[in-house]
Write a sequence for this structure.
């Protein structure tokens, strides 16, 4: 079974930066897509960013220009560089991996890493 482990979360002040990492126990080049999601208390999980096998990316509007998704296929790591963090970015961040088929619901999830941004 594919293992997915996130790291890099923490507590920062508004305007600060964090880089999240997601280590995948399988060649990341083989996945149809890899994504970052987040879930704040009392809210639904939402997609934050996505990177496809061909390297094309998508970022939700609220993080465009501040967050950047990338992957290192040689190390099997997915990244999320988060700059200019805002209190509304506070959430548990999850990595999701889709190996086959359309990029809809990830087949593999990590346990999450907490990001807390104070004003």
């Amino acid at each position: 079974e594919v293992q997915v482990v996130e790291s890099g979360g923490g507590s920062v002040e508004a305007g600060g930066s964090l880089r999240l990492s997601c280590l995948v126990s399988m060649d990341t080049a083989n996945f149809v897509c890899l994504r970052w999601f987040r879930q704040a208390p009392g809210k639904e999980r939402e997609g934050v960013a996505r990177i496809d096998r061909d390297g094309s990316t998508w970022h939700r509007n609220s993080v465009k220009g501040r967050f950047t998704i990338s992957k290192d296929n040689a190390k099997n790591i997915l990244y999320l560089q988060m700059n200019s963090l805002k209190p509304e970015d506070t959430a548990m961040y999850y990595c999701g991996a889709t190996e086959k088929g359309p990029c809809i619901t990830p087949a593999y999830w990590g346990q999450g890493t907490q990001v807390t941004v104070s004003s």
Summary: The chain has a mean pLDDT of 96. The longest strand covers residues 91-98. The two ends are 40 Å apart (CA to CA). The chain has no helices and eleven strands.
